């Protein structure tokens, strides 16, 4: 009887340990993920006013689960839905790739066109408080604020 009880408890305990380790293996960098996995509103970019960006609902969404160190993101700049793959490194570098969008024609698409062209050039990122800042090699920036904070 003791042997059966010990065997059952061993199997249950092993199952618990395996479940814990498999959950943790899906998280690449918990602190980084917690900072980045948000929806971000665009508040400073080029010569565009904050009011113009807010009226268009300009934002990116990085809430998808990190897979193989990458986050599938989406963006909206007032007309089309955009999508991209982002890879955030611990050293502050970022790689934005696989950018695409829907193909609706809208009256004012300048912000969307500029954003789509420049997003792929962003090389570094920084999270400062509730802000996410992308910077390219020429010092051009895109600044976002966490949507759940403002």
TrEMBL record:
Gene3D superfamilies named among the record's database cross-references: 2.40.128.270
The organism's place on the tree of life at top rank: Bacteria
Signal peptide start-end: 1-25
Keyword entries, A-Z: Signal, Stress response
Residue ranges occupied by any DUF306 domain in the UniProt entry: 36-144
Keyword Isomerase annotated: no
InterPro entries, A to Z: DUF306_Meta_HslJ, HslJ-like_sf
Pfam families: META
Record flagged with keyword Nucleus: no
Protein name per UniProt: Heat shock protein HslJ
Originating species: Chryseobacterium taeanense
């Amino acid at each position: 009887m003791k042997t059966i009880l010990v065997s059952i408890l061993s199997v249950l305990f092993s199952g618990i340990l395996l479940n814990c380790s498999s959950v943790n293996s899906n998280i690449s960098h918990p602190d980084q993920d917690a900072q980045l996995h948000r929806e971000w509103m665009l508040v400073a970019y080029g010569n565009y006013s904050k009011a113009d960006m807010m009226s268009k609902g300009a934002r990116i969404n990085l809430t998808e689960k990190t897979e193989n160190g990458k986050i599938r993101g989406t963006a909206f700049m007032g007309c089309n839905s955009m999508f991209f793959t982002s890879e955030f490194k611990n050293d502050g570098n970022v790689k934005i790739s696989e950018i695409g969008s829907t193909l609706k024609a809208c009256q004012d698409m300048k912000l969307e066109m500029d954003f789509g062209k420049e997003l792929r050039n962003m090389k570094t990122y920084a999270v400062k408080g509730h802000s996410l800042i992308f910077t390219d090699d020429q010092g051009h920036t895109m600044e976002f604020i966490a949507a759940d904070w403002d």
